[in-house]
Amino acid sequence: MSNKSSFLTDKVVPAVSKFSNLKFIRAMTSGIVAPTAATIVGSIIAILQTPPFPNTYTGSFVVAWRAWAAANGSWLSLVYALTLNAVALYTVIGVSLATAQIENKRPTTSTVTSLMAFLMLCCNYDATTGGLSTGFFGSAGLFTAIIVGFCVSEIVFWMDDHGFKIKLPDSVPPNIADAIGSMLYVVIIAAAVIGVRLLAGLSGKLLPDLINLIFSPLFSATDTIWAVIIYCLFSRLLWFFGLHGNNIAGSVVGPFLLAATTANMEAYAAGQPMPYIFNGQFQMWCTMGMLPIALSLLIVGKSKQLKAVGSLSVVPALFAIGEPLTFGLPLVLNFDLLIPYLGIFVLDGVVPYIATELGLIGQAFITVPWTLPHFLKAFLTTLDWRATVLYFILLVVNILIMIPFIKRYDKKLLKEEMGQAESTNE
Length: 426
Prior knowledge:
single chain, 426 residues, 19 helices, 70% helix
């Protein structure tokens, strides 16, 4: 065990840490958080537009709700189109801003240029109506938004560092100097984007179509029970070695899960079957294990350490904050609790996936704040009361799994505390 631990801490952990600190990974991880508020608002609007009841249900409240939605469809559709259905627009802005922050650069020109490039690559112009196509503003344009937001920003910063800039006298105000001085590389990028669009057009498709074609096998591979198991194991093993497992694992699958959540919501709003089970909101099942660990400490802990950690960590764990347990129990490098620790998180991912696949609970599709208690998230993300029932069943099962291991670990700590007390008395 010592040799394995040494290999992991000396070889694997530094490699994973190095990967998570790559510029692109950092920019993407920070940038895809940008649309969160818009997706929450869009989720609410979608529910207001489409009441979550079967069409055969004719209760007076639901009939009135449907009538209200029909009467207010114009502004509801507008808000939906500018929130959830524009997730790619906000992502390209978020990734560009995150890249500028990493490079310690002024973000104005790079962000505007990235947005310009995205629109040029993703939109068609209708000469009859004078409008732009918006089909890639939602989940279908998400991967293009990430790539464009990062690459265009990096090109802007490289050209700025290498003198591709119109120089103006020092007397010109900085804001005006930046706007005029950046014209040269904006023109260069616009010409390059047009070239990319023309090349993509040789296939009869826009660039986002080609990018989605490349990533489509990964979508299929991500939405499987094996992907859930690997995600749960990988993220928890990272936490076990003191790394932020959710962020690092999320940097790999985050774009897929965000796109899957948005696609589910778009399908719901259109009255169509939702295509994905494992998505950004399904993740709540993969993180619910901290509260049962904290409750287990309160139930059976007798040592001073476990009593203190249990009382301090239960409230944060209720609101999906697990760091007090991770570093206070600790769970980091604690081989006494590793097996049940990994086991309950895998169980919490696998059982809901199977239950969703069998139709026992609804699919997750509504974006909610991550700090909500899990029993609320189980219902709000699915609008299915059965998901909350499943949450409490898993909560009890998790506690029952953890208790024998917590007891054994507690006895070990009691012996250590008694030994310290005896040495102090001597």
